[in-house]
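STRUCTURE REQUEST FORM
Protein name: Thiamin pyrophosphokinase, catalytic region
Source organism: Romboutsia ilealis
Requested output: structure tokens
Priority: standard
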Amino acid sequence: MKVQAPIKVDRKTKRLAKRLTGGEIAVINHVDIDEVAANSLVEGKIKLVINAAESISGRYPNKGPGILTENNILIIDNVGEELFHNLTEGQIIEVIDGNIYRDGELLGNGEVLGKQEVSEKLKKAYENLSVELDRFIDNTIDYAKKEKGFILGEVEIPHVKTNYANKHVLIVVRGQDYKQDLSTIISYIEEMKPILVGVDGGADALLEFGYTPDVIVGDMDSVSDEALKKAKEIIVHAYTDGRAPGLKRVNDLGLDAIVFPAPGTSEDIAMLIAYEYKAELIVALGTHSNMIDFLEKGRKGMASTFLVRLKIGAKLIDAKGVNLLYRSKLKMKYIWALIATALFPILIIASFTPSVKQFIHLMQLKIKFLLQM
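Status: completed
Returned output:
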């Protein structure tokens, strides 16, 4: 295996993915590459991934490395922090069988992960899943006790401009299969006209499909400037002590925002706001709702999400994975039936015109002549 290309370097994979133009080597420092990160790298049309950390640590079966290798993108794994800091964006490097060279000088090496190596590592990770699940449950219970005030009225819900009362609310998170799920519910959006809430990068997902987010909720680390400028309202998720690093970015764009200090995830507070302001129905798309989802986000439990979903109850419809529920296929017999239906009135009308009548009469004579032959 030999690859030579310019490099793009970033400790944050989602930040790096925005700068990819195609044909580069992506240099990252990402323990347990998650599904969303892997898909963003694939979309960037990279040649190779160099990871300073372990792409599969073995804690749980993360899907990212499998997505990369299925798209014929190899990973040079666990090359170390020293090599990561020794690489500068824009440099051209050469990778030969796991060895990394710059101008002929060997900088370091890592383990080459292809389909087989990823499969073997994932098998071991699955064997460890019960251990991780035990820890995850304990952490969720511990934090649920600490964060129960989040849903019991101890956390003040900020005043918002958006009128949620008696309306449908669609909350979009850039999670697993969010594009496919969003494609599936287009008819729902067109018919019901729900309030569109983008959670960080979920706002850009809405823009991709031609919709302007009514509200953006998040810490503002993965949403584009374009989405922020187009949104009608911005709610910055802050730490419980009031610190809101994302607020500076919004203000630097000359925009106003509401700050909401709260525990949990940004999608949790998006749902809670919609519920507290009397939304009729809350549809969640791409959200994180299981152990793997949360481990991929670097969380050791899902206390706040469990509590919020417990509170909003029957008002919540989880549209995650809805694209797998029904896939419509246009069959050939329907196409031929449609063509025949469309042609029938045309043929009837055309048969009354003199030129067409003459043509039909001529064809009849030819057929009679051929039959006599």
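Reviewer notes: The mean pLDDT is 86. The longest strand covers residues 2-9.
Form closed.
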